[in-house]
């Protein structure tokens, strides 16, 4: 049986981030395949909040501005899930998709109990990429035996995740235990689990006893025929400079401070380098970088004159901005991120944290320069990237990079979702 309707569950569509991009691109792709889509969200939805309204999904919102931080405890979760259940029974999707660190899967699990509606979960990242205040479930009875082992999988995990959980009041600890158990049940009940790397696949296997399918997608195939319209170099007065670009929302785990420190070291050897910093802090992000702190760090490091803070970069000018840089740097604690892949597809050389996972064919292209997540290593990788010869994308390079297109990503996902629906009705 082929899927005719998909419901997407999201807690809120309130920022322009990688997770939102994944879901909105998925909705667009599946709509192109003749599938009816519906987004269900708890918080009020403002179509302009994500990517300047360039996506126009059909959204039904509960209108509850409380985000999932545990307010109201399990009774509040049950109340929210009851609303979600009603909406799912009205829409009657063939399958439900969720995105996040599996928090959303708990709500879909509760909402679909006894309905016969299958669901799939895709992880935008590891719960170990966040400090205990954001993801406490890793310290619960259900998961804590794996903390030490998973913590050793990445340098950033060891920096971010203490072995022992910070103390919690009894009520919050009880909520954490209950919600973590629900998360375990939710992942075990999911028809499919999608992740972005083998590392996260191992984590899912350890924590939830489930196999997951690694898939990666970052851009439409039209990116390969993009022709630069405006010239950001000229507009910013950067002719003759070595341009380094970084772009992400300003949150702690994105390590924008590390990028600045690495750039300060680079300028000791590459005098004509300039760093462009795109992105901003989003009010809904509880781990956003404090306003003005990056600017203050640039002054403290003595590189203020060589750094340009661009703020939020609209989609309309995004690819032109990538195309103007000599090297792109991305030191996020992540297994996968969209931005550096977009830069690669536009012919740029990319420095990223060695915590990022990449297939051998991609690494063989000579366009990626991994670095340990510390300033000296990142600065050395940046210098190597700037010194490396640039070249247009040849046929082999393009063939490799096309594997990470939305078309290939969602085609593989749709195949799996169709199989999941057939299995649920067998």
Identify the notable features of this structure and list them briefly.
16 helices; alpha/beta; single chain; 13 strands; 426 residues; 6-stranded parallel sheet; 7-stranded parallel sheet
Kindly describe this structure.
There is one protein chain. By secondary structure, the chain is α/β, with parallel strands linked by helices. The chain is built from 16 helices and 13 strands. It has helices at 18-32, 73-91, 103-112, 147-151, 155-160, 170-189, 198-208, 232-236, 256-266, 293-300, 315-324, 338-345, 360-363, 375-387, 395-402, 406-424, and strands spanning 5-10, 36-41, 59-61, 95-100, 119-123, 192-195, 213-214, 242-247, 273-278, 307-311, 327-330, 349-353, 368-371. The strands form two sheets. It has a seven-stranded parallel sheet with strand order 3-2-1-4-5-6-7, with helices on both faces. A six-stranded parallel sheet has the order 10-9-8-11-12-13, with helices on both faces. β1 (5-10), α1 and β2 form a beta-alpha-beta unit. α1 crosses α16 (406-424). It is globular and about 65 Å long.
